[in-house]
Structure formats: C-alpha cells, structure tokens
Amino acid sequence: MNRIKISGIYRITHKPTGKYYIGLSVNIFDRWASHYNDIKMKKHSSIDLVNLWNISQPEDWVFEIIEYISLTDFKKSSGLKGKVLETSFRRHLLKREKYHMSLHSINMALNKMKKNFS
C-alpha cells in the first residue's frame, strides 16, 4: 500500500494536561506509527511521554502537523540532488523544529531533549 509522504514538523498533545511532544519527519505518518510502537514496547526516548500515555485514553491525544514542508518545493528552490539534497533538507527540518520548539514552553514539553524550548 502506498501512503502519501508528508514532511514537516508535528506535535503530539495530551489534551487533559496540555503537555506535548514536538518532532520532525520526512514521513510524518510513519513516524507517528513509530512513536506508537515505541511507546507500546516501552522503548521510546521520552519516558515522560510513555508514562503519560500509559495512564491516558487514546482519545486524550491529538496528533497534528504544525508545519508542512514540501521536499519537492525545497528541491526546486535549492537545485540540489541526491545525498546533498537529503542532508540539506534534513538540516532545514531541524531548523524549523527548533523554531517551533522555541515557541513552546519547556514546562509542558514531553521531549527527552528540552534544550530548544523557551
């Protein structure tokens, strides 16, 4: 089955507490599935996320894309190809992730590394 690949920045929010996890991916839907599997297997990097998930109901969570970033548009504007394109696009996603983290409070973050939050 071919799924649409959407790249960008996403947020997973626990509605009752307002706590959130912010991440990036070149394939957000697959990344969300990976988060879910890691949480269920208790292998996720964020212990806070795992612990909160385990005392919650599925309907307590919202998965949302907070910025769509088109690889096609990035490729057109950069003129890059191959590995250089992949590396540059990944760096661009990291910059955008840091930007979105800077807009959010460290006190509510569920990410393991909280250095980019305000």
Description:
With 118 residues, this protein is of the alpha+beta class. The chain has helices at residues 28-40, 47-54, 71-78, 82-102, and strands at residues 8-14, 19-25, 61-68. Strands 2-1-3 form a three-stranded antiparallel β-sheet. β1 (8-14) and β2 form a beta hairpin. The longest helix has 21 residues, at 82-102. 19% of the residues are buried.
User: What structural class is derived from the secondary structure elements?
Assistant: alpha+beta
The biggest beta sheet is recorded as: 3 strands, antiparallel
DSSP helical segment count? 4
- Element string (H = helix, E = strand): EEHHEHH
Helix fraction bin: 40-55%
Oligomer: single chain
Strand order in the sheet with the most strands: 2-1-3
Average pLDDT for all residues: 93
Distance between the termini: 40 Å
Number of strands: 3
Q: Low-confidence segments, ≥5 residues, pLDDT <50?
A: none
Shape: globular
Radius of gyration: 15 Å
- In terms of DSSP E residues, the strand content is 15-25%
SSE topology sketch:
Blueprint: E1 8-14, E2 19-25, H1 28-40, H2 47-54, E3 61-68, H3 71-78, H4 82-102
Antiparallel strand pairs: 1-2, 1-3
Pick out its properties.
3 strands; 118 residues; alpha+beta; 42% helix
Structure at a glance:
By secondary structure, this protein is α+β, with helices and mostly antiparallel strands.
